[in-house]
């Protein structure tokens, strides 16, 4: 679909530099908390854990909405990003990486603190456990959001992690709605949902066009379904989420996804088949890539099964590589397969 607006999508979230390391399961005892979750920590805690790593870590741009935005630009959407960078070399490298991918970087904010960082610990089952220090992004506030930030945009995508600061999240969503943008939200983490469930339900009642979750997140949103574990359970939970009026996507990892739209007697449910992967090494960024694939189809008015197929393809390719982004050397083949689905 063509549009007179200069931007197809603006992502809003944390421009975090990822520190990536493969670790054995027993290393997670040093980090505490639940496997597969995300916990906010300070810079000293990240430094302590890095010093304990059995291997030298790799670095990559990261952040949930940022990964999604980066990938939508790679897929040909006109994209920009709003987030607060720091005052150090990591921030400069981050901005340069986004510019090289074709993302409009003019809407970044700038803070006086070092750039945010996230230590992503990947265990042999390819699951990642994250410890995040927000750095400059921790000073990102409602006062940083201007009405002009959303000028010329069709759609705004936010990450669940923003919800930890409800005033900031309100300012983003209010500004996007005032600008006439459609909205998408990736719930991002079961911790986010547990801590912010009532706020999330209130925003869903106001209207969000696309909401994506994984199994843990949607169970946290609907705690009376804590024992859900079957395909039909997740389809039913997707239908509950779609009752708020938007498209609901329930990501099931290696088992694919459900996409549900409509309510009452007009519900349509689509089972999205997984793209099978036998060499998964790291799940970091897979859900973000899934969202990018889905939105790249949805913003082009493609049928939901096509949007889901693109999403599944991107998520599956992402887990074959360390870090949240598909390496450039593998991107040409991936984008060619996406182009075939978009025809």
From TrEMBL:
One of its GO terms (molecular function) is kinase activity. SUPFAM superfamilies: Ribokinase-like. Residues 55-325 form the Carbohydrate kinase PfkB domain. Signal peptide: none annotated. The keyword Nucleotide-binding does not apply. Keywords: Kinase, Transferase. CDD domains: adenosine_kinase. Coiled coil: none annotated. This is Adenosine kinase. It comes from Ereboglobus luteus.
